[in-house]
């Protein structure tokens, strides 16, 4: 039950972070537009970056680790619980079966 509660907590925190990011982007866009009244500026929303997946194929580990570190591990906005949640979400198939309940995210 604690694990489910923690997953819900992380999910809610993630939604709040996304909401904050959207608010910041709108604010930045509004500021940019108001500062450039004489020029025609447009705001382009880039697509969301999807979380890399690791399926247990050792040849793909290096690429997965680089992408995961760049997006999640090195993200100072996320706490260790959130980072572990994202790591668990990224593990698929055979890679998911080697996880144990005592696993933690450590640098």
UniProtKB/TrEMBL annotation:
InterPro entries: DUF1759 (IPR005312). It comes from the Eukaryota. It holds the Pfam family DUF1759. This is Integrase catalytic domain-containing protein. It comes from Trichonephila inaurata madagascariensis.
């Amino acid at each position: 039950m604690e694990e489910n509660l923690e997953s819900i907590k992380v999910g809610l925190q993630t939604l709040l972070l996304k909401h904050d990011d959207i608010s910041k982007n709108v604010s930045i866009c509004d500021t940019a537009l108001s500062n450039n009244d004489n020029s025609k500026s447009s705001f382009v929303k880039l697509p969301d970056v999807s979380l890399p997946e690791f399926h247990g194929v050792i040849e793909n580990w290096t690429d997965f680790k680089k992408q995961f570190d760049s997006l999640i591990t090195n993200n100072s906005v996320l706490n260790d619980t959130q980072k572990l949640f994202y790591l668990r979400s990224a593990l698929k198939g055979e890679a998911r079966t080697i996880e144990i309940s005592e696993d933690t995210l450590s640098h």
